[in-house]
């Protein structure tokens, strides 16, 4: 021949790898490949692998073309599938025509050795093409060639090509699939008929999700999964609750009837939530007799927000319940197509999937792909080809499946579960379907998608499609589908009749069971009840020595060794700084058998280089954590997080939700940065107890304080958190001593109830010479919500300055410098719940004072003042004035001189 034939770059490395192996040892490749390579010489070019022998036969060159075709189908076959149930797919070029691969119809009956590649040996081109067409271009399109692990690629190829016509399901298995789809379809139509116009965000058009989830549970149980944690938004949630989770139909129908849940204690504030946001948990038996625990996380309307919560819950259970074995529990995240492509949180959660601090052994992602987001067309919802393109960042396989092909859906989801269990990585199933009605049942979709909805109107539902298929193949007779439909519809009617007789709903999933057993909801009287957080002197000193002693056989940086020497010296001096107060809180809890988990950006060292909880050896990458040696060393975990606030805070909230016996902490790099996770704060931290009866003991640490570092490194936005406070839903604190901080952290686990704690931590005070505590402060006192001024006599005081946090030490410095005995400085350490009775006692104590002034370094429209101004107005503890920076839209100035002048003005005014 007078020309050279090239393979595409996509396949060149594959062929070249085989050829290199053949050259070293011909017997290292299959016999067919040996024959294939005989007489060939391969070289490399910028275009790919080139056959250099110009005398090679045309047939031999076409062998390469057939291989190219096989790899082309594996790589791009997903672009040419029959996966869209209601409309034609977009066209992609080049296509999969024979000519694309240098072949023609004349070659169809020619036998090619390339059939070896797909496991059928030498075969006609017709048969080779049919096999890869059936595998990669029917109801399932698979994306996996970008995976960088050849073993995973081969496993997927072998499985799919061997199962090219899908498994042969038994008649009983087919009937089970039909029954599950029937329940999904009838349930939705029943609700739509009986509760006309009520919002339910129906699953109609995507009912094959139900047999998919049913199969996940059955298959997963056979592969060793004991528990599934599901997170999903509102679309189809009621169907999942009823037909997968086993929430009684009567209960769901009672909610539609407007029945309320029983208020066991009128003092406990429970506002509830709409029915398609509620969570549930249950225990079921699979067909093979295995017990499986199912949980569906409650979720807000913010799409994808539940995803990191689910991951955190699963990781918590892996650590606490399954001894690190992720194969026994699996997260299932159900997305919408617009949300998975549009919400940046999905990227954050996906990037967490392989990180030591956050991995859960792989998540099963299922996309309910309606091909529209509310009213937005899919072409306007993303720039990528698929909504699942985020899967590529972690080399996770994707299966695109026609939602009308129930058996293909079941096959794909089973393959996904197998892959997850085998390789412990994420896997995505893109369920191509449609939304039969609008975004909600009162919506008119034809306003924005008239052509699509004309097609949908004429389209049979998935049950009708599958029943017709089964009837055609003889698996069922013409009466079977109608009988199962009538039977279930009649059952739902009996449940509706029963629901109408219900007066008050009973909570079927109490909060305080399982890991929460022994805990209880908090009551008003509990909030200020004294909590004993003291520790024994000897135990404290012993632990202090243990966590400040470094092993002699490890070489640390000199600065680190000096730091730990200084910490050890604190024991002798009886003067403990902020870092030691914090670390001792962890050490004492660990010593009591509790778990401590901390994560956030740079938390191991600490943004301000104060913590040094994990040390890196000088001459290696080895890590050493003194706290991890306490009490067996298996319950202290501290992880530098990825650069994420939203995803990581959600994860830690989920972790704390599943394990209330762990002190779970998220620390922001700077307090200002928490607002990247504002949705978690609003939708979970502050309101979950009211909406879903779900308590949580998560701790948020937000470094806060005006120090001339500009508007982005000053404020944790105290005012925003206080604005969210009501009914004792949060604890907001701003401590000024290491010991008080120590007791505050310990109190989180010592109490028999849980509340989220938001604590504004210092920056400059970390090394302030006056910010120290003695042994007695740790071992003889408890947390103090208010710290009074012990340096003045009450009868001499004419002005009382109230403050919180760092500014206290600046006020103290001026008070001492001027020897002002007529001014008292009172610190409020717990801003919320506000210590009203203690403040009343202080007002009474300073009865001779004429001025009770609130002093803060924040702007007047920020900090604690707006809350206290509102909370204490027209009471006997109303402040007579406020001293603060002037109102501003920005938290702080970026100019140091201006900052110093403003700070000086506040102090001057306080003592004027």
UniProtKB/TrEMBL annotation:
SMART domains: Transket_pyr. Its EC number is 1.2.4.2. InterPro entries: 2-oxogl_dehyd_N, 2oxoglutarate_DH_E1, DH_E1, KGD_C_sf, ODO-1/KGD_C, THDP-binding, Transketolase-like_Pyr-bd. Pfam families: 2-oxogl_dehyd_N, E1_dh, OxoGdeHyase_C, Transket_pyr. Residues 576-768 form the Transketolase-like pyrimidine-binding domain. Its cofactor is thiamine diphosphate. It comes from the Bacteria. The keyword Oxidoreductase applies. GO terms for molecular function: oxoglutarate dehydrogenase (succinyl-transferring) activity. Gene3D superfamilies: 3.40.50.12470, 3.40.50.970, Multifunctional 2-oxoglutarate metabolism enzyme, C-terminal domain, TPP helical domain. Keywords: Oxidoreductase, Thiamine pyrophosphate. E1 component of the 2-oxoglutarate dehydrogenase (OGDH) complex which catalyzes the decarboxylation of 2-oxoglutarate, the first step in the conversion of 2-oxoglutarate to succinyl-CoA and CO(2). Belongs to the alpha-ketoglutarate dehydrogenase family. This is oxoglutarate dehydrogenase (succinyl-transferring).
